[in-house]
Structure to design on (483 residues):
């Protein structure tokens, strides 16, 4: 299973909290350091001033009096040390009355050295173990000795740990509480436009600019899905119509057959009529057979991909001639003559399907013709000069054909009533008939031209109908020639 996606609001809350807290900590530290350093600077100069005052005061006393003065006057936080010109400690307020000879020589201390040299000295020493900083200030006395004052305070680190910790902690806690409330508010405000997105109309949202590519994608995908659904629905409804039509077309001859057969079975048909009834039954079963053959042919054409026998090299001329030959008798019966004008042409595909196609077109041209009419069947090619590049026949059925591809054309014209322009697309639809009763009586299934169209498409070609010069119908099939 996929991991749960992280929560935007939780992430936002964490980031805001982390940034705010880090900000507070850094700000407090910086502020405290500045504060401490300026404080220390002031303390150092105060101590220096105090040292000068002490020096002046001690200079006004006799050397004998000094110790007494020091012991009386100066005490408190500040430590006083009186150092001889040779560096020995004469007095130290940190150890009053101690054995001064025990104290180490102070002559090497930098602030003392500076004072001994006649100037004034100030240093600061840090004790990591005690966590303290000690300021020293030394000034020379008139007799060459040195008075040194020192003051010890918490070091910067200790100052932070002791003095800054409580207020900073309180500030951090308060900030965390504030951030909690604010981030809730912020998150809610940021999320509101996202919550309001209407996915069913992606492009009508005005959430965030950053969302636009995503919404555009959703929109285009929804369009695709809608289009696909429509196509599927259309295909499904066509399929359902087709099944309903087939059942309906089968039912009529079946009812005739079953009615006549029942009469005969019950001995209700006079002997003279048996022949007639038998022939009707035969005719109707032929109709059913033709219909079933056409339905099977169409469903094969609906399948995708060419089968092995559909990629053979086919002699179109011979195939068309053969179809015409098979229709000689029906043509004679109707008093229609067939004229052939066939140039040699080869196409690649299925001979069976191509012959069926020619057969359907010629059969229609005979059936939908006047007695004594004419059917002209032509096969034309560019190489044989039957077709020029500008030929409107070439234009008629092809728009998408590759202009470099050589074409073969099958044209079947008749001298019948023709097809009115508004029906010229529809005649290729399944079960579409211009004149239902006449088509039925001539034995048509209503599927012949649908098979022609699908066969042409299947061979990379197309078919169209217009009217022949005399007003009859002229069907033109365009096929790519075999290379
Ligand atoms: P049918 O089996 O009814 O002939 P087709 O699909 O072959 O079915 O033809 C569809 C309809 O187109 C026919 O019913 C007819 O009305 C019309 N049609 C086909 N060929 C011709 C033609 N040569 N002349 C006039 N009408 C035609």
């Amino acid at each position: 299973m996929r991991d749960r996606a992280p929560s935007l609001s939780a992430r936002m809350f964490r980031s805001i909290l982390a940034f705010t807290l880090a900000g507070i900590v850094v700000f407090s530290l910086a502020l405290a350091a500045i504060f401490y350093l300026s404080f220390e600077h002031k303390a150092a100069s105060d101590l220096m001033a105090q040292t000068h005052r002490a020096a002046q005061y001690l200079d006004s006393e006799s050397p004998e009096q000094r110790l007494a003065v020091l012991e009386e006057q100066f005490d408190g936080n500040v430590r006083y040390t009186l150092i001889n010109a040779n560096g020995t400690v004469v007095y130290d307020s940190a150890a009053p009355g101690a054995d001064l000879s025990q104290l180490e020589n102070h002559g090497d201390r930098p602030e003392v050295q500076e004072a001994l040299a006649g100037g004034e000295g100030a240093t600061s020493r840090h004790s990591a173990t005690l966590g303290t900083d000690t300021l020293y200030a030394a000034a020379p006395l008139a007799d060459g000795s040195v008075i040194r004052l020192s003051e010890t305070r918490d070091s910067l680190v200790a100052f932070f740990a002791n003095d800054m910790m409580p207020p900073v902690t309180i500030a951090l806690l308060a900030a965390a509480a504030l951030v909690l409330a604010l981030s809730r508010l912020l998150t809610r405000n940021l999320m509101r436009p996202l919550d309001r997105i209407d996915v069913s109309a992606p492009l009508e949202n005005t959430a965030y600019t950053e969302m636009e590519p995503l919404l555009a994608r959703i929109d285009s995908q929804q369009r695709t899905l809608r289009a696909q659904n429509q196509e599927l629905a259309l295909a499904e409804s066509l399929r359902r119509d087709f099944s309903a039509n087939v059942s309906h077309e089968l039912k009529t001859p079946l009812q005739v057959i079953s009615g006549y057969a029942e009469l005969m079975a019950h001995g209700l048909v006079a002997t003279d009529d048996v022949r007639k009834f038998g022939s009707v039954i035969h005719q109707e079963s032929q109709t059913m057979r033709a219909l079933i053959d056409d339905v099977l042919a169409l469903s094969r054409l609906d399948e995708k991909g060419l089968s092995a026998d559909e990629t053979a090299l086919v002699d179109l001329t011979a195939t068309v001639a053969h179809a015409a030959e098979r229709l000689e008798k029906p043509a004679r019966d109707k008093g229609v003559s067939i004229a052939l004008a066939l140039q040699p042409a080869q196409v690649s595909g299925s001979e069976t399907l191509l012959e069926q196609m020619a057969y359907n077109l010629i059969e229609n041209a005979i059936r939908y013709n006047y007695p004594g009419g004419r059917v002209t069947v032509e096969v034309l090619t560019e190489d044989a000069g039957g077709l020029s590049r500008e030929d409107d026949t070439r234009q008629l059925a092809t728009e998408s054909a590759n202009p470099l591809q050589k074409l073969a054309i099958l044209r079947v014209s008749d001298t019948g009533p023709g097809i009115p322009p508004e029906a010229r697309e529809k005649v290729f639809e399944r079960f579409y008939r211009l004149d239902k009763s006449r088509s039925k009586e001539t034995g048509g299934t209503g599927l012949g031209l649908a098979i022609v169209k699908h066969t042409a498409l299947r061979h990379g070609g197309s078919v169209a109908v217009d009217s022949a010069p005399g007003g009859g119908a002229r069907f033109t099939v365009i096929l790519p020639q075999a290379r």
